[in-house]
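Quick one - inputs below.
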Amino acid sequence: MNQLLSDPVFQSAMAPFSAALITGALLNLAGWFWPGLVIMVGFYVSTWLAVGLDVFPLTSTHKIILLGVAAIVAGITLDMYKGPRRYLPWLLFIAGAAAAVWILWPVLVRRGGLQSWGLAAGAGCYAGWLVACSAALRERPLPAAVMTLALATGTGVSAIFGSAVLLGQMGASMAAAAGAYIVLGLFLAGQKAGSILVTPAALLCGLLGVSGVVYAKVPWPALLVLSIIPLLSYVPVRAGRPAWIRALMLVLIQLPVTAAAILVTRHVTGPLPAL
Amino acid sequence: MRKLQLALILMCAPTASFAAEEHFTIDPPHTFPNFTVNHLGFSTMHGRFDKTKGTITMDKEAKTGSVDVVIDASSISTGFHKRDDDLLSPGFLDAVEFPDITYKSTSVKLNGDATGGTVQGNLTIKGVTKPVTLTVDSIHCGINPMDPKKQQYRCGFNATGKIMRSDFGVKAGLPLIGDELDLAFEVEAIRD
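Output:
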């Protein structure tokens, strides 16, 4: 049993998929936007198995774990909020950018000068963009889930190629959980996504991406490619078709971008590391 | 005359005690912290850090001293560049965020003939500080025979210890990649 629990494939694929599937089925009975929580359930189950859920000392990884919880709270708040949403994307952009800056803060302080400003601007724009651009997908469960699948796969596999296996595992866990959410959506009617899904998923993908660049060897151009994915999620797919065909079409639209990001990373970093 | 002798002895006493404490600066090209760790249950893998700096003081008469070492985390070398890159990432040493590994002694006890001893101190990795005891297996001091002027006085130290990497928050790959690390320090330091 211990051998299974410590297997990286189990930790980052099978465990989050199973946890998300079971939790999603149960949360679907509760209604509202709760099933959207399954992405984060998968993420935290995987992280707990891989390195535990400690948050101190406040390393970049521990900050990501904390910010995931903060993003869930923000997602729930946004789902309950009934007022005008005109300025919401801007607020989300700023919040995402601030989160990225916090993750990189020790490096920004040490480097100082123009280099720090450039790093903060690049990382902030990337995380902010993913969170803000994906916000409107809260009403569209299937595109939201496929976006998470594509973004998390690209982020996770790029991180693994970029010599950051832990960040890779974290990204892969969200992809596995998104896969479980899509499978559930094929069988359960009336599934909802909500900000409880898109806000934490997009934020964590953004933070894992910038961490992979700054703390490991993931190249910036890979993130540039990945940043296209939220836009592709808005490509209209005919609503009248069965859910599995729509899911397949969305995957086929976004998969080449995911693959391109991974190839860019592979081109820069070379083959997989051997621990 | 006797008073003068006594006065001279009293004047020299503190100086003699002060002179017994020697100050050394670590010689980086001859100082390497090494570690071994179990690899997936198959073998024992060796690694080392290539850049270390710091100071050592030693008082052979009082059988005490101090150690203050800074290891450049990014200088890790296991003989395979891709693996080193991963060991520098957040799952392991997180070397960009925590560039230094430090060890500061809290107590040094040299044995009777000052050819070994025990160092107790605090090791800091990834911002986590834990007490670690090192056993100094050998201390050998003398004039460096390679020094053209035959003036450079240096001491060599071999020390060993053990840590659990999970104690320092280095948890990636557990338990497949071993938790227990055997440490071995080969240190040479030049007297200031």
